[in-house]
Amino acid sequence: MMNLDRDFNFSVKRKRPEEEYEKVSDYFKGNVLVQYANSKNIMRIQEKITKRALELLNLKKDDALILDAGCGAGFAAIYLKEIGYRIVALDIISEFLNVYDIKELNPINADMCFPPFKPNTFDAIISISALQWVFRDINNKLMHLMLKNLSKSFFKILKPNGRVIIQFYPKSNELMKRIGKIITDHTDFDGKFIVDNPNRQKKRKIFLLLSK
């Protein structure tokens, strides 16, 4: 089981979009989707997170095939492609995949919990700011099933010795612990949480690193 080295202070006062909307597609549509996809600030933030995620992945192959799961408008995938990796960009919202010309990113319109790929396809999987839409309520049985399927699917489509890096925004220690338990109960991943800036909540970034 993935244990947290310590408990973290979470004092999130206002509701996040994933708490106010049942499905990610209910939130990301129309003007909200357009504004998000065209935000230079979000692009910079996601590129910075992606650079850190790559450090944690520590890939040995310069031409590794990476799945960007829940890619949104493709900010992480575009950056990864620019520095030489082979990319498949996957998102459940088809409109996101049409904002930019991302044919070279092999865009796939699908649910990241049900990725339509053969076993042992990818060297790595990266997911930036998406997991909180999959699992955000420890009492929701459907979310348990979705996270279970996501973790089993990720394990299946990864090559032996492949790695997954997930950056997300949990709202409690209990949520992080439950995510770790679901993954370790249903897969053979070795995993750990990595927390940057643990004592500065506004700058804190939480990553989950999984190894097959």
Low-confidence stretches at least 5 residues in length (pLDDT < 50)?
none
H/E element sequence: HHHHEHEEEHHEHEE
* Biggest beta sheet summary: 7 strands, mixed
- Work out the radius of gyration: 16 Å
Percentage of residues assigned to helices? 25-40%
Sheet-strand content, in percent, reads 15-25%
CATH topology (level 3) name: Rossmann fold
Structural category is alpha/beta
Which CATH architecture is right? 3-Layer(aba) Sandwich
Q: How many beta-strand runs?
A: 7
CATH homology superfamily: Vaccinia Virus protein VP39
Q: Which strand order spans the largest sheet, edge to edge or round the barrel? A: 3-2-1-4-5-7-6
- Give me the number of helical elements: 8
The CATH first-level class comes to: Alpha Beta
The coarse silhouette is: globular
Task: For the record, give the distance between the C-alpha atoms at the N and C termini, rounded to a whole number.
Answer: 15 Å
Q: How many domain regions?
A: 1
Mean pLDDT: 92
